[in-house]
Structure formats: C-alpha cells, structure tokens
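pasting for the record
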Amino acid sequence: MPQFVDTQTVRLFDAEHPLRMAIGADLAPVDVAYETYGELNAAKSNAVFICHALTGDAHAAGLHAGETRPGWWDNMIGPGKPVDTDRLFVISANLLGGCQGTTGPASPAGGVGAPYGLNFPIVMMSDLVAVHRALMAKLGVERLLAAIGGSLGGMQVLQWALTYPREVANAIVIAASSRLTAQNIAFSAVARRAIMGDPGFRDGDYGPQGDNPDTGLAIARMLAHITYLSEDALAEKFGREPQADENHPGFGVDFAVESYLNHQGEVFLERFDALSYLYLTRVMDYFDPFADPHATKAILNNPVNWLLVSFDTDWRFGASHSRRILRHLEDARQPVTYRNIPSTWGHDSFLLEVPRYHDTIRAFLRRASEVAK
C-alpha cells in the first residue's frame, strides 16, 4: 500500500534571530521544507536524518497525493526497507541554498521583493549543518540515532558528526568525499561556466527579467550525469546504438546515449534552479574538514559509530575518497566500518537498489537500534 506524505515548511531563523553563516553574513528569514516518515518514539531515540545530494530535495520517500513518482530514495526508506519506518522516525529536509522550498538564491531577499540572485551569501558545509540542527531542535530531537547521506549528503553527515558528535550516535557516509580532487573541481567549474556563460543568465538576475539559462543548465546536468555513471553502465545501457534506424552523418542526435543525455538535461530544467546549482557545487569545492588539524578533536572524547560505503565503479567519489576518510577516523580511534560495494552503476549506485549495499545499511541500522535500547 503506498505511503502518502506531505512536504511541510517551517521558519527556523528570522530577522531577530538570523542564521550567522560561516563567512560572517547574517541570513534571514530562513525557511526549510521537510518531510517525516514513521513515528518518533517516547524516548525520542529513533530519529534518523537524511541529508540529500546536490540535486535532491525533501521528498525522499513515499508519494505525494495525486502523484505517481515516489521520493528519490524510496527504495531505501519505508516499512521493512533498510531505513525501516516501522521502527524509525525519519527526517528529510531540503538543504540551505536549494530550490525546493528551502531558502536559497532564488528566494526573495529578506523574505520580500526580488530574488537574492548572486547577492545570496556564499554557503559552506557548516551552514547546511546549522540549518539541519535547527530543524532537529524544532522537532524536539536532541540526538539522532543516525545521520545518513550520499555524495554531497555524505559530506553533510561527515561535517555534522565531526563537529557535533554528541548529536549523532551513528554516521553513514555513502559515496562521498572529504576533499574534492582537482578533476572534480574542474567538472563543476565547466558546469558553472556553461550556466554563467549562457546569455539567459543575465548576471544571475534572470528571474526578474523573465529569462532562464536553460541551455547552460542543461549542459551542466548532461556533463554531471556522465560522471555519475560508469563506462560499463553506459556501455550496457547504450553501447554505440544509433538513435534512429537510419543514420545521416552530421551533428544531430545520432546515438542513443546522446538522446539520453539530452533528455536528462531537458527534464532537469523542470525541477532545478541554475543559481542553486552554482552555490551547491561551490559548497563541495570548498569542503576540506581535515585541513583543520583539530578536525577530529571533538570525536576523540565523543566517539561516533561510522559506516563508510563506496562503490567499485564510482570514479567521481570512488574508494580512494572513502579510504581517506577512513584513515582520519582510524587515527582518531573511531569505531568505523568500511565497505566497497561491487556495482555496475558507478556513482549513481547510492540511489539504486543494490542488494549488498542495502543489506549493509539494514544490518548497520538494526545494530544501532539494538545498542540504543
């Protein structure tokens, strides 16, 4: 039976109590869109926070009334699933700087008038966590049984558990990085240049001028999507299959993979904002928690139980990224489990129903729940 959910919105910061951001700017108001699944127990000890990736949103599981497409992690979250909502109270929130109900660069500046545009403050990973913590407090949860995230979501979990280990009993970091390589930064730089070089970008003021950098944003998505899939996955899905029965050499869409990427770019325009893409890719570029020699100081006396997961065909944030996190956590004497999971599907594997991966998450959370009793 489908689980129907609603997205809710709450104001967490206002003019009297603004969000003080890492760069020193004050931001208000800050509204956050979120969903919850399952029930919070009497002891408030079964809460799990879902941190989403770059283009995710609060709708992680279940169905919205009148819609047929479930949340983006519906194969992971729900009754009897690895994140079992028969036992757990699950919170999923659209992150700061997003464009699906939470305050971001396309929001009205100061809550009124024209959008912030490029006047929105630069966002750091600690700002994302500050908003997550404020939502957690609003919901009456003092300590999470677990925080879980993949890709950018995993980076948020890492930041949260390193900085506030008393609030996170268990941290699940999936297909994530503690420091982007030059290659990763380069991919995002090209994507941002495609957006900002589009005439429709209009120096970030495209909304009020009735325009949109559709071409640039679609190209950014197409480029990113190539990095999310392994070469084997692309070969298995498309190979060199022609798009049509008869090919006429030229510069049209001649191959199936070209048609697929065009489609990914076009549908992305319906749900995401170009400014959010700029800001959130920059969050990842700047993230480097272990550059601080005191990064693990808080967890030395307040250990967190860690699960790190990578996928063997992920070349965006592959095993080397997870192993770097592992080394730092082992040096800090943390209880940490690491699994490198075989999968054909590259970075996107964290969103898919890969049996060994799901079994790993299920077992870890069951053990965490038993320890919490």
